[in-house]
Design goal:
Order of helices and strands: HHEHHEHHHHHHHHHHHHHHHHHH
Helix content: 40-55%
Strand content: under 5%
Largest sheet: 2 strands, antiparallel
Distance between the termini: 58 Å
Structural class: mainly alpha
Number of helices: 22
């Protein structure tokens, strides 16, 4: 018989092993480490041991977490709430991870012999001292966004994100997301998100940790300028390229998943997948992006983001977040319907499901996050335009490009046919496309001043009650939203115009092929006007405000610009010369906006089927 060597197990696991739910070997012969003192000098007669796992990970091997007593929990265990407004400082038991980040506690605990630190003698700190550790503690204005780009020097412990970057730099990345990307991807509740960051929720919640990693990936992927700033920060990123960092973030999120990861779902899991597919799209990893997008689709379907009847039982915060999540998924569905020429992409919805959805019910309420609480929603302050207003305008643009708006003046009164019927009857398809074009063209009349195409506002107009930095940030958010609205608006018109032209040419190529060139010339003024409007938008908004739109903007601009290559006039004609001038302008703008690290293969087959034979043997 062969005997197996048993793994020594400690009577009580150290704090890091308890948090990670791993076996601990503290006290065994293997639990010795030259790094066990963590850089401090040992006292006379003091012996400090470190478990093997903590030694490998470089973690402090401590016993600060209190041991939970068996039996039912006593009531009023913590009489003072951490959110209380009482003037008297409240006390609560501090976790090991909070203690590690406080030099005061570290001195009291780590500088004393190991025997004095035990679960029966946990350290006590005041709520105020814990809150003082956060770099976001001064964010009190309901309209403010993060302005602290560096963490307090008191943050000196170990975080699960340390392999990505330093904590001050991570806080800066989160701040940049809220300042620049949030208006376009508003799938966190800002007050809750700030509070979770402040208390270090990623230390014990893997779903929140994955969300932070995914936000970091999306921010770096979308805004190349920020990546360069992070590389030159006091505690710089160690990654040489955005692709390297984004792949590392994704690998970290996968490492957080157990075999039961999909047995419990929540909005944060969907948001993490959505952010990651955005990041892969921005760096041109389209194969990976497709797969992660499918995961986001499946989670969105399981969460019933598209069924308003399934929102019963959700609090106000979750309700609004899920509505915004639905519309972000809807954008992708519209893209798949208008540009999925290879038909290789799966779709979030289909015609049958879409016909049962009341899109108006799924529109988020137009108030900022600071007005949304778990049990009620406050009205938006007068004269302060909510960022959600711009989000809803963009959502209605995508809505109008696919089906009639439920508003007066749209083509909704006409009979609507499914795609299978329209594909067999060109006259019905043509009428459908013309209705979509009509709805799109005139739907932006009456936009708020901050979002209009032809007029901008001063940085301080309509921003009463905010300081200079907050006004600057909010104005930038309006400009990024304005760019998204009008570029998407013109791009969708151009795509539908392409489909109308293709349908007409297909009909005329039979017996009246000689009429095609003249018809194209007749329609050219509309094409030219679309390009002129788009150039006005791109020149009217500073590029620093265009950048948060990432490749979603550059690809749309490229799709519109490429139509100029099909100018039906002779090269010496003044119209053709004008088209060449527009094309040169677009090329110049795209050369500055497109920060791709790889060649764009979105419209190509970028995967290889290894089961197919490429050639015949000789």
């Amino acid at each position: 018989m062969s005997s197996r060597t048993s793994q020594p197990i400690a009577r009580q696991a150290c704090d890091p092993c308890r948090v990670r739910k791993r076996k601990c070997d503290t006290g065994s012969s293997s639990a010795q480490s030259p790094n066990a003192n963590h850089g401090r000098s040992l006292g006379p007669g003091e012996i400090i041991q470190q478990c093997k796992r903590c030694a490998e990970l470089g973690l402090p091997c401590t016993f600060l977490l209190p041991v939970a007593t068996r039996g039912p929990r006593k009531k009023n265990r913590f009489p003072a709430s951490t959110t209380s407004n009482s003037s008297e400082p409240s006390t609560r038991r501090v976790s090991v991870l909070e203690a590690l980040h406080s030099p005061d506690l570290s001195r009291e605990t780590m500088a004393s012999p190991r025997a004095t630190i035990s679960p029966s003698n946990p350290p006590i700190v005041t709520r105020e001292s814990v809150e003082a550790l956060s770099p976001f503690r001064n964010q009190t204005s309901p309209r403010s966004v993060f302005s602290a780009h560096s963490a307090s020097p008191r943050f000196n412990g170990t975080f699960p994100t340390d392999s990505l970057c330093s904590r001050p730099l991570l806080n800066r990345i989160m701040s940049d997301y809220l300042d620049h990307l949030y208006p376009l991807i508003p799938i966190v509740h800002r007050p809750t998100f700030r509070a979770d960051l402040e208390k270090g929720k990623d230390l014990y919640d893997n779903d929140f940790l994955a969300l932070m990693l995914s936000i970091s990936a999306a921010t770096v992927g979308t805004i190349p300028r920020k990546f360069n700033e992070y590389r030159n920060a006091p505690n710089p990123l160690r990654f040489k390229t955005r692709t390297e960092m984004i792949n590392h973030c994704y690998d970290m999120t996968l490492g957080l998943r157990g075999s039961d990861y999909f047995d419990e779902i929540n909005f944060n899991k969907w948001a993490s997948s959505y952010f990651m597919q955005i990041a892969f799209f921005q760096i041109g990893q389209h194969n990976r992006q497709r797969m992660v997008e499918v995961e986001a689709m499946q989670l969105a379907r399981l969460l019933d983001l598209h069924q308003i009847s399934s929102y019963d039982g959700l609090d106000c915060i979750q309700t609004q977040l899920r509505k915004k999540g639905f519309w972000l998924m809807f954008y992708g569905y519209v893209h798949s319907q208008l540009q999925n020429l290879r038909k290789e992409r799966l779709t979030y919805l289909d015609g049958t499901i879409l016909s049962t959805i009341d899109l108006e019910d799924l529109m988020p309420v137009e108030v900022d996050d600071e007005m949304i609480h778990e049990d009620f929603v406050q009205p938006q302050p007068e004269k302060h335009l909510s960022l959600v207003t711009g989000f809803n305008v963009a959502s209605r643009i995508f809505w109008a490009s696919l089906i009639p708006l439920s508003t007066q003046g749209s083509a909704g009164a006409k009979d609507q046919y499914c795609n299978c019927v329209r594909s067999r009857k060109p006259d019905i398809q043509l009428a459908y496309l013309q209705d979509r074009m009509h709805d799109l063209k005139y739907m932006l009349d009456g936009l708020p001043t901050q979002l209009r195409q032809w007029a901008t506002v001063r940085d301080d107009e309509g921003l009463d009650g905010l300081d200079t930095q907050q006004r600057k940030i909010l104005h930038s958010q309006y400009e990024s939203t304005r760019a998204n609205i009008h570029v998407s608006h013109l791009w969708l018109q151009s795509i539908i115009a392409d489909q109308i032209d293709a349908l007409r040419e297909r009909e005329l190529n039979g017996s009246q092929a000689d009429l095609v060139p003249s018809t194209a010339k007749d329609r050219w003024p509309e094409r030219e006007d679309t390009c002129r409007q788009l150039l006005h938008i791109l020149h009217g908004i500073p590029e620093i405000h265009l950048e948060p739109n990432g490749h979603h903007l550059t690809y749309k601009v490229r799709d519109v610009a490429v139509t100029l290559l099909a100018c039906p006039f002779d090269s010496q004609h003044e119209v053709a010369k004008r088209a060449f001038g527009y094309l040169r302008e677009f090329t110049d703008i795209l050369s500055r906006l497109d920060g791709s690290e790889t060649i764009n293969t979105l419209s190509l087959q970028s995967w290889v089927d290894t089961g197919r034979k490429i050639g015949k043997a000789g």
